[in-house]
Amino acid sequence: MAVNVLYHQTVQRIEEELEWIRMAKVNPAHFAPLYKRYHEQIFRYIYQRMDDDEAAYDITAQVFIKAIQHISTYEYRGVPFSSWLYRIAKSELYQSFRDKQSNRMINVDTIQLGHIVDEIDEENDELNRKQLINGIAQLKEKEIQFIEMRFFEKRSFKEIGEILSITENNAKVKTFRVLEKLKSIVKSTREHELQKSKY
Q: Does domain 3-100 have CATH number 3.30.70.2120?
């Protein structure tokens, strides 16, 4: 059986999904299998960024309402249907943050941070977890997206590009630039802490 290594999806699963999409375009009532397949992961994506059950369920519902309303505009571009849903979810999330003037959450764990350490710390000397989290907090909202999608959600550059409506190469370049900026912030923080320790 052939497998799409990039997304761990069999050809059969992709074809099944495309058939569901085709049917949903004809009749929105056929959207149900897509909803069942992706509701949980879209909810988790939203919940991780706001840590509020009720609001996360509301926004998730809004994502699928929009998806049903706009399914006729969907075009397959070689990435999972979920990428299109994530793009809608991202838009709904940021709209919610603007409406409520609230801050988004960033949920991280030690393993996820370890992957970033490997990327930004060539000497692999002791990169403090606190320094790294503080460094990420100093990034702009749009920059944090690249860190989250690449290192926390393990997305390919192609999928990042699809979600953010940019090219795969642009996603790669922008991610590299964000990592370089994060490296610079962490280095500056270390030097500052070193100077303070001398006095």
A: no
